[in-house]
Design brief:
By secondary structure, this protein is α+β, with helices and mostly antiparallel strands. It has 9 helices and 10 strands. The strands form 3 sheets. Strands 6-7-1-10 form a 4-stranded mixed β-sheet. Strands 5-4-8-9 form a 4-stranded antiparallel β-sheet, with no helix packed on it. The chain has a two-stranded antiparallel ribbon with strand order 2-3.
Length: about 260
């Protein structure tokens, strides 16, 4: 699902409408294969971007359905304000801000046969948007990837790993062949997509066409500004027709005019 969503983002930024729609549809189809049936398809961010791609293609019927599905995911009242067909049609500048680091995997079990996701700590928790020097609001969260990971349920691979560990313990208890059990490596798969963010925030609004300067300010969980995270984007082109999508990632000293710390 993240792979297809990233592809949809890229196509959306380049105004490749059909490719963006295919990417988000594939992301939704992948999400509907989650082990936990109660959470299948409940990913507001995918429905939001699928709705945006439908608007770009002039398919207002499917765009309206996508917005209803996004609201049904209960992402929160602030996010629900974005899930509005009129805003999808009128807002011509969308800023996507990825914050935090994706969850990592840690081994579990006597033989490390299982792996479990663990959240990765990070500083930034909120972002405010300034356009041409004017404060235009805060970005709102439309995706919490830790919640998605922690509620996905037990995968088929995890069930297989549990069976392998049980079989290994039986082999180790048998005479003559117990050494085979000792040598049997049932370590779980520790691979994970480390480049994923933890949360995805969005600011969306209508601005005059032309080039604009966008400043992003980031804040920690105590609402203190992280000055070394501040970003400035110059000459952001907003077309007279259509929209402009800016995708960025919060990072320390990414756009810093200050001297590096020693």
């Amino acid at each position: 699902s993240p792979h297809h969503q990233t592809g949809g983002f890229t196509a959306c930024s380049d105004r490749r409408r059909q490719e963006a729609q295919r990417g988000f549809r594939k992301a939704l189809m992948a999400h509907q294969t989650r082990p936990n049936a109660g959470t299948q398809g409940r990913f507001a961010a995918i429905h939001y971007w699928l709705g945006k791609s439908y608007v770009r293609l002039g398919d207002m019927g499917n765009a309206r359905v996508a917005m209803r599905k996004a609201q049904s995911c209960e992402a929160g009242p602030e996010s629900n304000a974005l899930f509005n067909l009129q805003r999808l049609q009128e807002d011509n500048l969308i800023i996507v801000i990825q914050i935090g680091a994706g969850a990592g995997l840690i081994p579990q079990g006597g033989d490390w046969q299982q792996t479990a996701y663990k959240p990765t700590p990070y500083a930034e928790r909120a972002a405010e948007v300034f356009i041409d020097g004017q404060h235009v609001g805060s970005a709102v969260m439309i995706a919490d990837l830790w919640e998605q990971v922690s509620t996905q349920g037990q995968t088929e691979e995890q069930r297989i790993q549990a069976s392998k560990a049980a079989a290994k313990s039986i082999v180790q208890s048998l005479p003559y062949i117990s050494l085979l059990g000792v040598a049997w490596d049932v370590t779980g798969d520790m691979r994970s997509w480390a480049l994923l963010p933890d949360r995805i925030l969005v600011w969306s609004g209508k601005v005059p066409s032309g080039d604009h300067t966008v400043i992003l300010r980031f804040y920690d969980d105590k609402d203190f500004e992280l000055t070394r995270y501040r970003q400035t984007w110059y000459f952001v082109p907003v077309p007279a027709e259509g929209d402009c999508v800016v995708v960025t990632r919060a990072a320390r000293d990414k756009c810093n005019i200050c001297r590096k710390e020693q």
